[in-house]
Amino acid sequence: MSSFQNGENKFAVYGFSILPAAGNRFTNLWLATHYRQPSIFPTFILMKIVSWNVNGIRAACKKDFEQSMQSVGADVICLQETKAQPDEVAGCIQILKDYHLYSNSAEKKGYSSTAILSLQEPVSVAPDMGREEHDQEGRIIAAEYPDYYIVTAYVPNSGRGLVRLDYRETWDHDMLQYLKLLEEKKPVILCGDLNVAHQAIDLARPKSNYNKTAGHTQREMDGFSMMLDAGFVDVFRHLNPEKEGAYTWWSYMFNARKKNVGWRIDYFVVSESLLPRVQDCYMLSEIMGSDHCPIVLELS
Questions:
Q1: Among 98, 115, 177, 229, which residue carries the largest CB count within 10 Å?
Q2: Which residues are catalytic?
């Protein structure tokens, strides 16, 4: 850390971020959420990204959504299933007014939809993947930053009785092509509700759900594997290859969350070239307000 004076204001340089010196309320919050002291060398988290399927932003805001996100201190917040139009999302965001807000809403009101909140104004922001058959439900936003893209996605569920499984397979192929096109320019961070439990370890009851329940069919699992084979990395599983009981979604029925009978269907998937910058990836399972919990990616 170094410091400099500008008139009566003293500033400190933490990593690559210039902040008011320690003692300032904003600096104290930033340090609390971005600074780590390991055994030998201190580490600064230069980018903290949160992804959360809020299952309706208006409902979530009645359940301490803003207070929860404020306490996390994220640089970027990616939301899925906001179920709201842009003005409705903006109307819910009062405490988080320091963030730039970008929304992509479904043509059908109260359905699907995504949003990104970013403290730093992105270089550019673009909705959808540019394919008419996929661009009616507000399922994708890509925010471009100097070093990478952050793409948040709410991948279509294959539906009860797997009625949308054929469409889902088409989506998986087309989304991968879209991500690879972005990756030609710079690395990609994909986050969101990808609606697949990729391996048996990623859900509590794999045998009873395999090829019977949306999110754990072989075709959906193969779609995810296709991304990994194309050079993307499931960050949480890369860091925790054998960790069991780590889930991001629980049914509201049968007290599933308390019993931890869940699924890991929310992900951070990154270009392999970004792995050296990854510091951690984890769930915030203590945060309520949705049937999903937020997940976090920290980059140095």
A1: 115
A2: 154, 193
